[in-house]
Known about the structure:
The chain is α/β, with parallel strands linked by helices. It is built from 13 helices and 18 strands. Strand 6 (95-103) and strand 7 (110-119) form a beta hairpin. The radius of gyration is 23 Å and the shape is globular.
Amino acid sequence: MKASRQNYFIQQSQLPASSEYVWELMTQSDFHSRLAPPWINWKISEGITEVKEGQVASFEIRNGPLKGKWLTEIVSVRKGYLIGYRLTPPNGDSWSLWSRCLPGETANDCVLEDRFEYPKRNRMVASKKSLDTLLKNITYYKHRTLKNDLHFHRQQPPEKGSSRVILAGGSGLVGTHLTPYLRLLGYEVRNLTTNPETSGLQWDPKIGKIPVADLEDLHAIVNLSGFPIACRWTQKNKAAILNSRVQATKLLADTISELKSPPKHFIQISATGYYGFRSKESIDESNHEGEGFLAEVCKQWEEAAQLKEHITTQLKILRLGVVLSPKGGALKKMLPAFRLGLGGRLGGGKQPFPWISLDDVIRMIGFAIETETPDRVFNACSPVETNNMDFTKELSSVLKKPAIFPVPSLVLKTIFGTMAEEALLGGVNVFPEQTLETGFQFFDTSISEALRYSMGKW
């Protein structure tokens, strides 16, 4: 009997949904986009549009040991049970991935199994142990994310005529990850875009241009628009930060107020900067706005979202903390220095650090558009109090790198000006009181676990 030329790696997880429902999710085109590990920089050149034998896709991994262009071909489909893929890496040695959906102990649960088969003489990773660790992190992320998503899934599609969702500013970090999540929930998602070279509904808040007819009879509009605040706050940039938010939001609110059939939900993104920098107070949604540029921006931003009294659309404002993801935002900008062992606390490090994982943001938005509540404001940040020093220690621990180079306050103020005082050296202890009252469940409350999970460091 010949010795096997393949190594194997198997991951199984019990999921809180029927095998029939999970199988339907597995056949959707956005399934793998939603569950792709955020620490892997990858781009799809050609996607699989239908789950059937012979379908081929190509994608490029731009970092890590699996770096290069890959081909994927579906080689076997057994409806309701199994999808088999042939994976061809850059070195040409074929792998296999067998994804099975197995019945669970009851009709309301099932077991998802991913089985990788790869050559024993693998030229991409130094050892089987290293490759198995990598595959374990990838599949753990996939299974854990899917399991948590299923807590918010309807397990049936939305009612006909109410399944359309429009995203304004959908090309950013939150929007690009929210889109596949909402599609898995059964929604038809389209973007409002100011870029004429991209697909989507064209609009221009500066001149009041918006496709009114396309906004009729929607389930929800989610407004994520806004010029990035992570820049030096020159007068020009401050004007762009404020105007980009107020103009876009007011145009959406005014348009909704004039529609014949307005959406059921208007989800408006704001920020915990609304409360200013009050590090010695504990703040919830009942507190008034603070002082400073960010607080004033958030105040005007939220005022612009107000709808006329006769409109039945439910307005929900989500005040986001720092969104943690290696794919973008603050964490992505910090990682190069921390990976070199050059990271450190900012200033004294005791300033509050209200944060939220990207997955919890996405699920909170999904929860908001599926939950009937009066117009309210919700703090979108972890209920566990954290400061900058805590964050620094946990990130250095996850990366196994020292963080012994604190950045003095004077240096930050010299580089970033007033932005450093409010956004980097200031802070506020924010608690999501009203968010928890709705029944929303945060899955990432430990900053250590959130960082490990999003960066593949289990």
